[in-house]
From TrEMBL:
Cofactor (UniProt): Mg(2+)
A GO molecular-function descriptor: hydrolase activity
Name of this chain's protein: NUDIX domain-containing protein
Domain Nudix hydrolase residue range list: 1-128
Length: 144
């Protein structure tokens, strides 16, 4: 099972995402990436955001764990709250195939194809203040 840490970074009730085009379909990914062999989650997350979008972050609390099971590919998403320590988000085309950086309004997040697909949980937690379980179990992730 692949492990993918990612960072929820908010500004003015907007979520930082990376926009991709897969087969003509738009996907908005919460920034993060895959672990290198022997790497710790927090270290990998900091490295990925520095490499891909030039941000130094402080990893805060773990918000969600979610499993995605596909044929020949299983992923455990570890979604952390994070805070920008320094830098302004800017794509590094040597490290990512993302088209652009997008700040998605949380109040309309259900209108976007989000990766991982935790739109409802983000909206409930950050806008509605609802308590939630950290472990979400298996989530439905549409693949384009």
């Amino acid at each position: 099972m692949k492990t993918r840490p990612s960072a929820i970074i908010l500004a003015d009730n907007k979520l930082l995402t990376l926009k991709y085009n897969y087969n003509g379909n738009l996907l908005y990914a919460i920034p993060g990436g895959n672990l290198e062999f022997g790497e710790k989650l927090e270290v990998a997350l900091k490295r990925e955001l520095e490499e891909e979008i030039g941000l130094e972050i402080e990893v805060q609390n773990l918000l969600f764990l979610a499993e995605v099971h596909q044929q020949n590919k299983d992923t455990l998403h570890c979604v952390f709250k994070a805070k920008v320590v320094s830098g302004t988000p800017q794509l590094n085309p040597n490290e990512t195939t993302a088209l652009e950086i997008c700040w998605l309004p949380i109040e309309t997040i259900e209108n976007y194809n989000l990766y991982p697909n935790i739109k409802t949980q983000i909206k409930e937690h950050f806008l509605e203040g609802k308590d939630h379980q950290v472990f979400l179990g298996e989530i439905n992730q549409p693949w384009l």
